[in-house]
Amino acid sequence: MESLYRDGRMVYDSHPDSFPPDQNDPMLAVRLISGADWRKMGPKLVGLTNQPMLTQVIELAERPKAAGRVKSGVEAALEELKSIRFIDFSPELMRKPSIPGQLILSDRGDNLSSVLQAICEKPELKLALSNWIQALTPMDVVDFEFVPDAAGKILVYLVEEGGRKTSANSASDGTLRFLGMLAALLGPKPAKFYFLEEIDNGIHPARLALLMDLLDNQSKGKGIQIVATTHSPQVIRLIKEDNLKYATLAYRLKGNTEGRLKPLTEIPNLLDVIKRKDIARLHESSLSAVTQNQPRKVE
Known about the structure:
Blueprint: E1 3-6, E2 9-14, E3 27-33, E4 41-48, H1 53-60, H2 67-82, E5 84-87, H3 91-94, H4 112-120, H5 123-136, E6 141-148, E7 154-160, E8 165-167, H6 173-186, E9 193-196, H7 208-222, E10 225-228, H8 233-237, E11 248-252, E12 259-263, H9 270-276, H10 279-284
Parallel strand pairs: 5-9, 9-10
Antiparallel strand pairs: 1-2, 2-3, 3-4, 6-7, 7-8, 11-12
């Protein structure tokens, strides 16, 4: 089942001829929405179930009346999907020199030095970068140097107040992960959607609160969406109250290999319990009482 919204209005909605959809049916019917009223169905399109309907609609929508609006909506949606970044940093790759002018940090952290160099070209971003590094790491960083090698590639050096210089090649994994997140979020070409796996990985527990502040500030200030996963009760403890409505519990029922997702807001009475008890303690004790098919009221 697929639906597409643009500017708060539904552009199209998929309506299989059978519900629930027959997985063996090779064709899928899609109804375009007629005008602004989602209840009025427009032309019917038919596509293949073994391909995403979103990409098929561009071609299928060439003929119907709503073609222009639907096509532009689908193209805009595809552009948003292209901006999704699944970050999984590799400190080994982040320690390598990079070619100047590379403005996009790869999902693995390649081009770290060149992206940081681009950030430092703007004084206000350079100041923000050094402030965050000072807050997030033990290093008292006041400047950055980008030293070229024989091939013309550059490597970033963090310059501390006392003059000590630490290259990316010598920095700890945790410092590199912080630099990677800062490069991704402050860089000249940030994505609109980031997926961060195990955000506490390699980060000192004392600095997790600052990390959460960084992600929260950048997502709200720049309109960036960030999805992060964790198994750490401490990270869960640091989720701000107004962000709990976006938190989702991933779990698996006993004897079942299928993973499930449940928004915290859909677990009966849980948000009231969180106000009285530590959410991290609930996580540590496993939320077995609230992850069944028929959740019990949490006391």
